[in-house]
């Protein structure tokens, strides 16, 4: 699974599972970038074959409903949906 990387301040292992067409996903990305935090992301809808299968299986571990956006912080905390206050609390 190939993740795209965005530079910023290292606050741990931050991974965003998103869709390229999702407005809430875009708002989540913009918020993380405005906070200046380093993170990785994947647009699951732009993957296919084995890569999509791997992305979906990985996402299921954190969010069995496979909804977007799903933000995973240090493999332990999961924020599902655009939860601005929760994201700021974890990443600020």
Automatic annotation (TrEMBL):
Protein name: Glutaredoxin
Gene3D superfamilies on file: Glutaredoxin
SUPFAM superfamilies associated with the record: Thioredoxin-like (SSF52833)
Family matches, as InterPro entries: Glutaredoxin, Glutathione_S-Trfase_N, Thioredoxin-like_sf
Signal peptide extent: none
Domain GST N-terminal: start-end pairs: 12-92
């Amino acid at each position: 699974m190939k993740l795209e990387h965005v530079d910023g301040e290292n606050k741990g292992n931050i991974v965003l599972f998103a869709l390229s067409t999702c407005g809430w996903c875009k708002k989540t990305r913009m918020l993380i970038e405005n906070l200046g935090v380093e993170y990785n992301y994947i647009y699951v809808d732009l993957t296919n074959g084995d890569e999509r299968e791997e992305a979906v299986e990985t996402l299921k571990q954190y969010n069995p409903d496979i909804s977007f956006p799903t933000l995973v912080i240090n493999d332990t905390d999961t924020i599902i949906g655009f939860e601005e206050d929760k994201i700021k609390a974890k990443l600020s």
